[in-house]
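To: structure desk
From: M.T.
Subject: fold request, one chain
Message: Could you run this one when you get a chance? Sequence is below, nothing fancy, just the single chain.
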Amino acid sequence: VLGLMEPDWQESAIRCHTRHATRARITPGILLAFPLYGDADNLGDCYAPIAAWSIMKAPHMAGDTDRLRAVYPFLKANVDSWFLAADRDGDGIPEWRNTGNPADNSPLYDAYAPKPGATCFPIPPFVSVNLCAYLLMEMRCLREIALLVGLADDAIAWEERASKMDRYILENLWDENDLFFYDRTPEGGVTRIKTFFGLLPLWAGVSLPVETARRAI
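Reply: Done. Structure tokens follow.
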């Protein structure tokens, strides 16, 4: 949003926000509260990783290789921080830890509520369709940015990481009978609650056959 008004503001905001990722192994959701962040246990307040996607949507950034080259390390650190700090079971897939990340009042999290009507509460680490979709889109966008700024090896690495996430989503989150993507509980069970998040992998370009995707929609 800042970038729509002034390109320098967008670049500055990205630098300011993501430069903390290495120090605390997370990208904090609220910079004013940064002194409270000391380790990975505070990942709950991290927000959806869609920075690279937003940049590729901004006309003044998408064609400016100098700006893209300047923010690329920070965008990369943002994605890497999720795999460093949010993969609690070590399976290579990060998990959500707080309901406020994607949607405060989503019924996806009702089972974990400390009381009826509660919002933004800690939840057990579970595999989230929307987080996987966001990360898949980020990896695809980072591949494009790497190509634009001449980082061929990075582009190959992002392609490989995106392919791995793509396979995981299709093999573990897709339900062929329901034509829907479902979250997985910490125990590996299926959260059969339908929200708009259940089709977000289609937005991220998951490699589902086109006709199947159309039937799902």
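Reply (cont.): Residues 152-173 form the longest helix (22 residues). Let me know if you need anything else for the meeting.
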